[in-house]
Amino acid sequence: MSSQVDTRYTQERELSWLRFDERVMDEAWDESVPLFERLKFAAIFTSNLDEFFMIRVGSISDMALIKHSHVDSKSGLTPDEQLKLIFKAVPPLYKQRDKLFTHLETRLRSCNICNLGVGELDLKERKQTERYFRDYIMPVLSPQVVDAHHPFPHLPTKSLNIALALRRNGEICFGVVPIPKSLPPFLQLEERGLRYVLTEQLVLAYADELFDSYQVEAKCVISVTRNADISPEDEDYDVNDDFRQHMKKVLKKRARLAPVRLEIQGEAGQALMDYLCRRLELTGEQVFLTKAPISLGYVFALESKLPPESAAALCNAPYTPQWPAGLVKGEPLIPQVLRRDALLYYPYHSMEPFLKLVKEAAADPAVLSIKITIYRLASTAKLVEYLSAAAENGKDVTVLMELRARFDEQNNIAWAERLEEAGCTVIYGFEGFKVHSKICLITRRERSHIQYITQIGTGNYNEKTARMYTDFCLMTANSAIGADAAAFFQNMSTANLDGEYRHLLVAPHGLKPRLLERMDEEIAKACQGKDARIFIKVNSVTDRELIDKLAQASQAGVEVVMNVRGISCLRPGVPGLTEHVRIFSIVGRFLEHPRIFAFGSGPEERLYIGSADFMTRNTERRVEIACPILDPDIRRQLRHYIDLLCQDNVKARVMGPDGVYAPLPRRGEAAFCAQDAMMEEAQRQARENAAHPPQSVKPLQQGLLKRLLHRLQGTE
Known about the structure:
Elements: H1 13-29, H2 35-64, H3 79-109, E1 113-115, H4 123-137, E2 144-146, E3 161-168, E4 171-178, E5 186-188, E6 194-198, H5 199-210, E7 215-226, H6 243-254, E8 259-267, H7 270-280, E9 287-290, H8 298-303, H9 308-314, H10 333-339, E10 342-346, H11 352-363, E11 367-374, H12 382-392, E12 396-401, H13 409-421, E13 425-427, E14 434-435, E15 439-446, E16 449-457, E17 469-476, H14 479-493, E18 505-507, H15 511-527, E19 533-538, H16 544-556, E20 559-564, E21 581-586, E22 591-592, E23 595-599, E24 606-610, H17 616-620, E25 622-628, H18 632-647, E26 652-655, E27 661-663, H19 674-691, H20 702-713
Parallel strand pairs: 1-6, 8-9, 11-12, 12-13, 14-25, 17-22, 19-20, 20-21
Antiparallel strand pairs: 2-4, 3-4, 3-7, 5-6, 7-8, 10-17, 11-15, 15-16, 16-17, 18-25, 19-23, 21-26, 23-24, 24-25, 26-27
Helix pairs in contact: 1-2, 1-3, 2-3, 11-12, 15-16, 18-19
């Protein structure tokens, strides 16, 4: 240990993250999961590990360069010590992944889905691959000999390359063949079933022909992972520069950052491996050998090629997000939300009601303005179309676009330009603080009276991920929440991060203190012998102050239950310290993503949903919002969702005092999967709604509905 910090109930963040990725790999081992879905989990594990090296290992490597080393507040370790732990923990994961991939590929071959090596092809298939290589691959390759006259090329992060050890006239030299990203990831062969060869394996097989005047002594597939932890808010730039142009420069810089990992598939040989380490300035512990393909991204493209009968047998049954109970599908959304709050739970519910709400607002003459914060969008987005239409219809549309959403910067730059062209006011947040909140405010004037419709979410306005991530979307006409939302957007427009709000909890200054207050209230109740409870659902827990407060709550006798998908630096069940804390994780078909904060029980329970994890970056260095759930019906719905999560004994894994997760023992109980139950429930409610549609509007509101219909149809 490099410093005296209290680690009795905490653990190192990066090892906790690696345990999360192990839980992802566990899904790929699970025989109850359809076979091709298991292969997809192996691919997700791999892409997670890629991002871990780009971001976390990259960041720690940067910190290790600083003369006065930072000491981690949860483990007491220096960056160098953290890196040693990481490089010790990762090789066993590669071995597990190799074993898993071999197992899955063997099973898939029995279903006539075959990832073939060139040496396995029959005569007809070999002729097809030779034609394909000569006609489509070879013309776009740029093989390069590296010697005194040819410098070692720049290898972009995660690009695939063929590396070769060559000999000519008794002298050793080296060659590199970058594989262009423009090439498809595999060649599908012309036979029955789904037989294919990965592109890098084709290039590897024919690489000798590219260096026909040399003797090839060793060759392999390689990929370099580079540090991608650019923090644009820390970069020096002229405050008068256009921030969007600054971000474009940052993106160019990212590709050339220092290597943190070298992956090798195939027989490299010691001379080639030593040469690559020397040129990339990597140590041996930063080199990882793999039998499985380095990149498994091709798996998702492969899915669309599956024969229909194979897809039905090997993939999850398709699930269509449902229209939520309580909202009438064929009628305008604005009157319905003005009448009562609505809660969507993606992907069990469709995102369509929210999109329809924005679309209606774009055309409604009573709407004065639409204001929204955007962190991530899909590559195609109806939301942008509707916001653009609103601006073109004369509405005041303000979009706070976060250009620094990691790996989505280029996409967000393009959307910002599109919105500006349509007449929207686009602002870009603050230097030093990312805007991660999910809030949309629609302001209407009805008979000289101002009405607010506020949407608060736990996830992004991304129409693609809304079908894969679980998230909440609250739509409310509560005037007090609307007033807070209006104040929030005014504060954002004037660069005021210190605004005061009655109901909303807003980081960086107002979220953590209020959460700590709520925890203190439960601690006080426990000290008085009263029932005291805390429920937290987040993606990660790393904020030391919140961790210590949760431990304090446990020591006071507060029952603390936490559903943490990923990292948790808090260890539960430590005698005398966290023995009243229970932490469980769910990794399943959908990515668990909502944030819920609940304090107390019964009618007095304080319930919030929001955008922030229990991480210092969220609580102190980002603009985040948590919103109280005030409507009794929505409170019942949210409590029901929490209860279902806590009943899961299929996908749930429970953390022990040592930080290691284990399956939940059933003790004779029937198997219960929360995600399956929620899908079934949403489908059942949709069927019931179709058979017995809810009463649309009360008689007193018929006039409002008629007026709105006339306005939307342009007949008033």
